[in-house]
Amino acid sequence: MNRIKVFLKNPEKKRIAKMVKEVLILMFNKKEIPFYYFKYLYRKDVVNYLDYLSLGEQRKIQFHKALHNPEYVTLINNKLYFHLLSEKTAIKTPKLLSYNFQSNFFYDNRVVQIESKEEFAHFFTTLFKDANVEGVFFRPPSDYGGKGCFKMTKAQLDKAYETLMTGDFVHTEVIEQHEGINKINRESINTLRIISLITSKGTTEIISAFIRFGVGNSVVDNASSGGFFVGINLEDGTLKPYGHFLPEYGGEKITEHPDSGFKFEGFKIPYYKEACKSIIEGVKVIPDRLIGWDVAITPNGPVIIETNAQPHMQMSNIAYGGLLKNSHVKELMQELKAIK
């Protein structure tokens, strides 16, 4: 219902006759009812609506068996597996400190079963001291979109007890964000979502990039958790003029961060080329044909936070300005169409 309200209230809608015409053309060309049209393509500034992947095309890319090896998908989508793999390879990630399956906590090659708040406090007091950290970031191994993520300092041990003891979490160090990104938003680690594609010719290409920002006091940047995203020009790593909220969060199109007032257009992402290079190297470790990589920028360079085998293609669609403008994506769709 919220998405419908956003559509009805948006003053930048195309004329009704134009929308009807475009919907009919999409139905004919895409061979599906284009409900997705009313999420974004109805806006006046979207003139190349045929360049945007349809919902069916997005799902084909996300789930087609020709693009995803089930064994790789398990490594990509599970945050714990990905961190354990990264420790044995050249993939640079935040340091894995410990992890837990409810009351069983894994640390320093041993299992500690915690049965009380006192044991819980002792475990983390030891962890903070041994790892020489002031805070720990927690993420459920298999959730996505920032769900269930939180940060804990020494002073917050009591507050985290029930949550950790009744769930499964990966515990990593809290990384320091590059000051250039902090100027836009310092409340959350604002990650780049970069999508890699192994083409039919065997080359690895970057087909989409955008950066996500949290708002308010949120410690996560995911657009599906209330944040927004800004497209990145693939050639030089500069930000595009507009940020976008998803329709379920108002669908607003903005030119500056709502909290800091920092204008997006032209800002150059620090270490962008290095981030792309780290992903190309990462594909050599996990050669799944399509992967979404979440990359944080630290003062010393890029760090890969996590990976996703079924990345949110609609955000890439919007950030790029129609993914079918990308020659590699266009060739991919032709390839998949030819596979029965």
Task: Draw up the topology in text.
Elements: H1 2-9, H2 16-30, H3 55-63, H4 70-77, H5 79-87, E1 96-101, E2 104-107, E3 110-113, H6 117-131, E4 135-139, E5 150-153, H7 157-165, E6 168-173, H8 179-182, E7 192-198, E8 204-213, E9 228-232, E10 239-244, E11 253-254, H9 272-285, E12 290-298, E13 301-308, H10 313-320, H11 327-338
Antiparallel strand pairs: 1-2, 1-6, 2-3, 4-5, 4-6, 7-8, 7-12, 8-9, 9-10, 10-11, 12-13
Helix pairs in contact: 4-5
Key terms for this structure?
single chain; 340 residues; alpha+beta; 7-stranded antiparallel beta sheet; 6-stranded antiparallel beta sheet; 11 helices; 13 strands; 33% helix; globular
How would you describe what is shown here?
- 33% of the residues lie in helices and 22% in strands.
- The protein has 340 residues and is an alpha+beta fold.
- The strands form 2 sheets. Strands 11-10-9-8-7-12-13 form a 7-stranded antiparallel beta sheet, sandwiched between helices. It has a 6-stranded antiparallel beta sheet with strand order 3-2-1-6-4-5, sandwiched between helices.
- A hairpin with a 5-residue loop joins strand 7 and strand 8 (204-213).
- Helix 4 crosses helix 5 (79-87).
In a few lines, what is going on in this structure?
With 340 residues, the protein is of the alpha+beta class.
* Rg, Å, rounded: 21 Å
Strand order across the largest sheet: 11-10-9-8-7-12-13
Q: Which structural class fits the helix and strand makeup?
A: alpha+beta
Question: What's the N-to-C terminus distance?
Answer: 37 Å
Range of strand content = 15-25%
Secondary structure tally: strands: 13
Largest sheet: 7 strands, antiparallel
How do the helices and strands follow one another from N- to C-terminus?
Answer: HHHHHEEEHEEHEHEEEEEHEEHH
Shape: globular
How many helices in DSSP terms? 11
- Binned, the helix content reads 25-40%
* Poorly predicted regions: none
What's the overall average pLDDT, rounded? Answer: 93
